[in-house]
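Bumping my old thread because nobody answered last time. Still need a sequence for this structure:
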């Protein structure tokens, strides 16, 4: 961004090496995955720390799913699957694999798709399911309700650092099914959701089917997700870690 019409990667890397190293800069990564990658780079000898992203658990919290669905006009006993359609054309977001998984699902009439974002490029999927769409959401209260009313949040990204959407869904008591990639593996575990082989649409489809078969397990993983968000991913914990780091850096000067 913006698109370059000639290869200047080597020159840019040289400039970054010049300006970013041996100048007393402290670097922070939001995931262990990225930390390990940076350690292998020319920044590996710099002052490097890892502080997980945090989410405001007072803004994102669980709600009564049935009441929320009724409030938003969703009167259904179907399994409610939530996903975001931002950046559909970005292959790293992996939406093509989710689309294929949804096409392969049996008993599509048992599911309702809860979609945040544009629908233009997924009309074929929407024709197969009952759909409730919210478009682009600006109000945090509405976004919280959408997370909270879903049974399962789907994140098919092929590459992610440490996505906040995962933390927001977990804070709202909604378990996550995601591809096993990047920093997602530091957020979701077998206690709080499902990790699927990266790029395996058939495995994603089977995970959705099995997850939705057991409502009690969904609720249990939802409660564990909320607990993990409070204990490990709270905004307060993140801010305390940054404050401590700032104080350490200032005390060295």
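Sorry it took so long. Here it is:
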């Amino acid at each position: 961004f913006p698109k370059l019409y000639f290869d200047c990667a080597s020159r840019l890397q040289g400039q970054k090496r010049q300006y970013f190293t041996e100048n007393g800069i402290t670097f922070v990564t939001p995931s262990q995955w990225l930390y390990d990658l940076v350690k292998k780079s020319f920044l590996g000898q710099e002052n490097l720390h890892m502080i997980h992203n945090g989410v405001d658990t007072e803004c994102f919290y669980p709600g009564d799913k049935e009441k929320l669905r009724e409030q938003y006009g969703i009167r259904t006993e179907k399994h409610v699957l939530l996903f975001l359609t931002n950046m559909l054309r970005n292959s790293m977001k992996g939406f093509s694999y989710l689309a294929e998984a949804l096409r392969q699902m049996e008993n599509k009439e048992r599911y309702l798709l809860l979609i945040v974002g544009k629908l233009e490029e997924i009309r074929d999927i929407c024709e197969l399911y009952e759909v409730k769409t919210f478009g682009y959401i600006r109000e945090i209260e509405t976004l919280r309700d959408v997370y909270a009313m879903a049974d399962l949040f789907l994140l098919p990204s092929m590459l992610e650092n440490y996505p906040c959407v995962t933390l927001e869904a977990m804070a709202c008591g909604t378990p996550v099914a995601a591809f096993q990639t990047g920093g997602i593996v530091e957020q979701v575990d077998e206690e709080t959701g499902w990790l699927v082989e990266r790029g395996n649409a058939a495995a994603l489809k089977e995970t959705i089917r099995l997850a939705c078969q057991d409502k009690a397990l969904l609720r249990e993983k939802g409660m564990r997700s909320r607990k993990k968000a409070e204990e490990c991913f709270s905004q307060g914990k993140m801010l305390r870690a940054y404050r401590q780091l700032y104080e350490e850096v200032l005390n060295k000067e």
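The mean pLDDT is 92. Let me know if any region looks off to you.
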